[in-house]
Description:
The complex is a heterotrimer of chains A (397), B (123) and C (238). By secondary structure, chain B is mainly α. Chain B is built from four helices and no strands. Chain B has one domain (2-19, 34-119). In chain B, 83% of the residues lie in helices and 0% in strands. The longest helix of chain B is centred in the C-terminal third of the chain and has 30 residues, at 93-122. With 238 residues, chain C is α/β, with parallel strands linked by helices. Chain C has helices at 45-53, 75-85, 101-106, 114-117, 120-131, 146-158, 176-191, and strands at residues 2-12, 18-29, 34-38, 60-65, 68-69, 86-89, 164-168, 195-200, 211-216, 219-222. Chain C starts with a strand and ends in a 16-residue tail after the last strand. Classes of the chains: A alpha+beta (397), B mainly alpha (123), C alpha/beta (238).
Amino acid sequence: MRLIHFAIRNIKGYGFRSLAIFLSVLVFAGLLVGTTVIIKGTQSSLNAGLQRLGANIVVIPQDAEDTFDTALLTGTNDKNLMPADVALKVASIPGVASVSSQIYLSTLYGADCCSFSETPLIVFDPSTDFTITPWLKSHLGRPLATGEIIGGSSIFVPRGNQYISLYGYNVTLAGNLEATGTGLDQTIFMTQATAQAIAQSSLTTAAEPLTVPSGEISSVLVKLKPGADAHKVSLQIYENVPNVSAIESPNLFGTFRNQITGLLLAFFVLMIILWVVALFLIAMMFSMSVNERKRELAVLRAIGATRNYVLRSVLAEASILALGGAALGVAGTSALLYLFQGFLSNIFKLPFLFPSAASLAIIFGIGGIFALITVVLAVLIPASRISREELAIAMRE
Amino acid sequence: MRRFLGVLVILIAIGAVIISAFTKCKGFAMPCDYSFKAEIALAIPLTASGIVITVFKSKEIIAGAAIVGIFLGISVILVPYTLIGVCGSPMMKCTSLMKPSLFILGILTIASNIGILYSALKK
Amino acid sequence: MITLSGVTKEYRLDEQRVITPVRDVNLNIAKGELITIIGRSGSGKTTLLNLTAGLVKPTQGNVFIDDVNLSGMDDSQLSALRNRKIGFVFQFPSLFPNLTVLENVILPTGFTAKSEQKEASKHAHTLLLNMGINEKSAVLPRQLSAGEQKRVVIARALINNPGIVLADEPTSDLDAQTEIEIMELLKKYNQAGVTFVVVTHNLQLLRYATRAFKMENNQLTDITQFKNLNKLPLELVS
């Protein structure tokens, strides 16, 4: 009989013990992979959000960093404004290749279901923009017309309609940007012309009119010349442009990143503790099981199995349980995270982008290997001990 | 085991209705509201199927009920995903909670009934 | 075939206490013999059997199987020897509870070369047929009676066509009728050329032996001359 068949029979035969070990590995592997997927997903989301902004530096009103971060991450409105000439001043700083200003608005709160309740609106300048315009070139092949918008990945035309109604004005959804897992997915992008058209219409068609600020902007996105030092440029912006904050894009979402780092550390410590507990529990369960089967394993040796065979048969049992538990734990947790990612993201206000298939495969692989190593380590000592026990004594027990 | 799975099917059917009731949007004439009503309509025959599986001993009847249960489980999934749907916004409870919950319950229904069918045919 | 030369086994319980179940035993067993060894519980019979099979190493002396000294063998060599040359019938229930009867019987063949494993199933069925339990080859051991389980153990002991079978109380826990059936089976295979060493406490089984011994005070005494008597002379009864 092959070793694997023998191992499977013993797993079936000692059902309760096998189930206990299987579930321990399932929970451990599931938690390990689950936390890794959440952390990886959050990091992916932050990176995707930064890429969407497309800027090396973002200039915003002074002391508005936290509001800006939150607005981008969670899709809420940032009402801070600064004079429109900030863009010109920033453009004159050495090292700056191009600048583009944006205005942040939002739809009304309490709109009908399946419509847009307090959805961020970003008004961009098509003549200077370098974030949306490249997407338009590649996907639409033309600029946006008045009355057209581009939506984040979560923006949609309500069922049964052809248009999206903003302040009572019908706009056409020309396309959706790729998901970032941040508030940018719930954001609508439009040109100044469209914003003005909506504002004009809202005077008569909306409960409250839309006001597009004149002479004021919410942010300036800065693209640097190749080789320019972002830190030096941002310092010069601070020196030369009053009442603004210049955030280098790696430092964007700074508060949130610090929180994530703290969370990472906490998760890491928790995982270490969990790993030790799992190791101990599994070692204890296997030790008990192997002790109960001392005589059986001694008989196996007596009829011709070597020590190595006995050790391998016990390790085979452990490995099958480990791989099975890990596979189910990893797959189950990932499936749950995938299905409930929206809910979790809303509840915990966490930007989250589900990792790509390649990243997932790596995470799964590492999770599975780690679970296998854990179980084998846990089992090695009792298995080795039993294979070395003097047979005559083992058979007496 | 058969009885356990039969009771599980009944609980899943009830669970689908309860979860839909609490996670659909408030208001009427919305896709998620129609999906909720459709889930009630599916839960009734699914509960009946679960009762049949639990109570009856004839393997043909059990197998038949299990086959019906499998198709009902598929329908539990299809209703919020394609047949009727839920609200479009991913921020809404019906999209983020009701839909995936029904998916999982549907899968559990299908898996349970496959197990029951296999057990009935094996004897 | 089997030679025990000055074999002693000591177990040290602590610094002061040592128990010696086997002391200076000398025994030569030729091919085709059926040896029975009787003795009270704790007299060292099982230890002697374990020494013969290489399951335990002697403190002094040597054990030879087909002129090969077991002391010089490592674990894998001993395992191979036990697998090919020695079959073991244990006193306690020794079938693997999660394997069927057939799987239990062919289990020892799993440690041999793959080419030999193909014939294993066929041979196992033949053995089980000879034991009269082939129709139960697909059941689990817990579904068998004590006598049937013993037959399966004997079949397993014979699956690799060993030259030697060591049987430790093969008829314990069996009724008188089944006891006789088991001994008749052993006798049948003995007559086919298998050497048996049978440890028992039942004097009635001595008559099956070619030679009989008594284990007492950790020493072996030849009692072959008394093997056909219903009871031993007073001087040999303790």
